[in-house]
Amino acid sequence: MTAATDRAPAPATEVVHVGRPRAKRRVGSYVFLTLAAIFWIAPVLWTLYTALRPVSDTDAHGYFSWPRMLTLENFINAWNQGDIIHYFLNSVYITVPAVLITLFLSTCVAYVVSRWSFKFNLVMLLIFTAGNLLPQQVFLAPLFKVYLAISLPDWLSDSGKLYDSLFGLVAINVSFQMGFCVFVLSNFMKTIPHEITEAALVDGASVWTQYWKLTLPLCRPALAAMATLLTTWIYNDFFWAVALISTGSKYPITTAILNLKGTYAVNNNLLAAGAMIIAIPTLAVYFALQRQFISGLTLGSTKA
Q1: Contact residues for 130 (Cβ-Cβ < 8 A; gap 6+)
Q2: How far is CA 194 from CA 53, 122, 145, 279, 293, in A?
Q3: Alpha helix (H) residue ranges in 53-139
Q4: Which residue among 40, 50, 192, 248 has the highest number of C-beta atoms inside a 10 angstrom radius?
């Protein structure tokens, strides 16, 4: 017998199906995301469905019934009865300055924390982010006393105090949103190569030039994402407006929905229509900045 016939037969090679587990994980991800999207959008669709039904229809047949008719009457009544334009302008006077001031101050702090090395670098970042660890209700009592004690000129507050003024709402929103923005923006700025800053120093660029003309343009996706989130959070704020405003005409649009409630009865169809109207500006901002928002959330994950 030859040497070739003396050899033991080679074991059969086991075929490993690598693609099958990966395909299962992909299907599982799609199923999970589909269910999450359904659960997320279902309340919005139900609110819209309720807003399009007359209150007489729901009173007669219940909310879980097929509609006999659909109408825009609730939207028209909510617009007129809730004085939407007036309260929307109040929200604009609060949201736009608060977002711009928060982004400017946050980028300043984030630039110092991320691009400069000094002894208290990490401590400063922890101080700015520590405020997000506690619920806002914890600070209500001391803040209320502080707002009553601080005086403002008449052109900032017709009440003469920080309390019951739109400027007070701008200040409190800036204070509470800065921590998260500094945390996100500083981590994003750390992904920018230091060679760019070193080249700017060689060319004689000042600190302000490095920050304003070099760093900020590279942070445009992150700034767009933060602007979208800040606009949504500040525009939808309800807690601070109720706690720090006493004059009804100064309320933002989120509290204007209280005008749609009756004294002895509540028209839920009218409230649903008002809620849908109030949500339109935030949806418009998101769709306008959607591409920058998504790129701002994912761009940092691909950098070393």
Answers
A1: 179
A2: 59, 18, 45, 42, 25
A3: 55-61, 73-81, 84-115, 121-130
A4: 50
pLDDT tens string 6-49: 555 555 555 455 556 777 778 888 889 899 999 989 999 999 99
User: Where in the chain are the domains?
Assistant: 81-302
The 8-class DSSP code of residue 211 comes to: I
Q: Which of these CATH numbers, 3.90.1170.50, 1.25.40.10, 3.40.50.1480, 1.10.3720.10, describes 81-302?
A: 1.10.3720.10
Buried residues in 179-199 as b, exposed as e (16+ CB within 10 A): bbbbbbbbebbebbeeeebee
C-beta separation of 270 from 82 below 8 A: no
Q: Is 151 helix (H, G, I), strand (E, B) or coil?
A: strand
- Range 252-271 average pLDDT: 83
Taking alpha carbons only, the member of 253, 277, 265 closest to residue 55 is 265
Separation CA 230–CA 233 (nearest Å) = 5
pLDDT at 297: 60
71, two tokens: 């109408």
Paired with 151 in beta bridges are: 161
3-state secondary structure of 8: coil
- φ/ψ of residue 235, rounded to 5: -60, -40
Amino acid present at 242: V
Other Cβ atoms within 10 Å of 37 Cβ, number: 10
Pull the structure tokens for residue 245. Answer: 């405003």
The answer to whether residue 1 scores a pLDDT higher than 70 is: no
